[in-house]
Amino acid sequence: MDPAVDGPRQPPARAGSRLCTRCGERKAALKRPKTLEQICRECFYIVFEDEIHQTIVENNLFKPGDRVAIGASGGKDSTVLAYVLSELNHRHKYCLDLFLLSVDEGITGYRDDSLETVKRNEIQYGLPLKIISYKDLYGWTMDDIVKAIGLKNNCTFCGVFRRQALDRGAALLKVDKIVTGHNADDIAETVLLNILRGDIARLSRCTFITTGEDGPIPRCKPFKYTYEKEIVIYPYYAISHIFSCIYSPNAYRGFAREFIKDLERMRPRAILDIIKSGENFRISTTTRMPEQGTCERCGYISSQKLCKACVLLDGLNRGLPKLGVGRTKGVAGGDSDCEQQAKRPERSRSSLQGKHGNIDF
Ligand SMILES: Nc1ncnc2c1ncn2[C@@H]1O[C@H](COP(=O)(O)OP(=O)(O)OP(=O)(O)O)[C@@H](O)[C@H]1O
């Protein structure tokens, strides 16, 4: 990776002067967040990449010849994913055709900057890039939408539109799969949120490593078991700037995230435990689940006559932007508010802005 991108970052937590517990030869350079092992940098890279390779192999995420679009936001997760996946593809001969797929939501001062990172990655990693914009797809940028609806509910639009935009971009690229940079922390947060909301439909699928096999294009999460803290350490010398969306507020998801971070501090395994709990939930057979159909207007998957994106778009075009915002029972992608997207309020002021994110595939 190119060491000279974007500016300084915090160094990873230092280990003492002990030897690496893996190789027993080099000095330990860091304490691995997931296991608290004291290891050297070389062993950290090896174990980090090997675990992702194991996840890919054990879950049969790909087959030789697959065309795979990497959802590339320019943020740390998807940037590391693009790099690691292209490395593993060469090293282990997955025989994948990889592409970068970016959605330009039209957020001045955020996405325009992060897309510059993706454009650099296109060159650095030699992966073809496709950018698809809300403006072209829907006639609205997020800047326009925020002007119409304000900050409070804008994440609902962004999450619903992005999900569909990724599918549409993937269809243009004729790929077999989309991969995203959702990590173990994201998944644990989503398990908790779905419990807190009583959203059984989402709870039952939010821990799946591959989703949407009944939809247009399956999506998978190779970082399902990868800790965010390790994703941050991994490219220490390579990817330096973390982009934060200027529109996403400090909402409900942020509290789930803080809670998980507190648990992780006391017991690093907590993240994996929450994911495991989510995986082991069994939905009662008497619980009514939404039935999947297609939108009458655009043909996209929907459990209602019109998909959520069409309902939201209708509201915007009719000058009634609040139409369709809020929880609509059974509506596909019907997030009740910004929480599903607004993430990562940290304690420091600089990171109080959350980020986009919709893990509901
Ligand atoms: N604008 C976008 N274009 C393409 N893919 C996206 C976009 N936004 C998000 N994604 C995909 O969804 C994943 C989760 O997005 P989220 O907004 O939660 O950010 P994140 O967890 O901080 O990830 P990242 O650091 O990659 O932005 C990303 O890793 C990426 O794969």
From TrEMBL:
Q: Which organism is it from?
A: Oryza meridionalis
Q: Which gene encodes it?
A: NCS6
Pathway connected to this protein: tRNA modification; 5-methoxycarbonylmethyl-2-thiouridine-tRNA biosynthesis
GO MF annotation: an example = tRNA binding
Q: What is its main location?
A: cytoplasm
Subcellular location field: Cytoplasm
Which protein are we looking at? Answer: Cytoplasmic tRNA 2-thiolation protein 1
Keywords on this record?
ATP-binding, Cytoplasm, Nucleotide-binding, RNA-binding, Transferase, tRNA processing, tRNA-binding
State which Enzyme Commission number(s) the record gives: 2.7.7.-
Basic and acidic residues bias: start-end ranges? 340-349
Q: Which family does it belong to?
A: Belongs to the TtcA family. CTU1/NCS6/ATPBD3 subfamily.
Q: Which PANTHER family match?
A: ATPASES OF THE PP SUPERFAMILY-RELATED, CYTOPLASMIC TRNA 2-THIOLATION PROTEIN 1
Annotated Pfam families: ATP_bind_3 (PF01171), zn-ribbon_14 (PF16503)
Q: Taking every annotated instance into account, which residue ranges of this chain make up the domain Cytoplasmic tRNA 2-thiolation protein 1 C-terminal?
A: 293-323
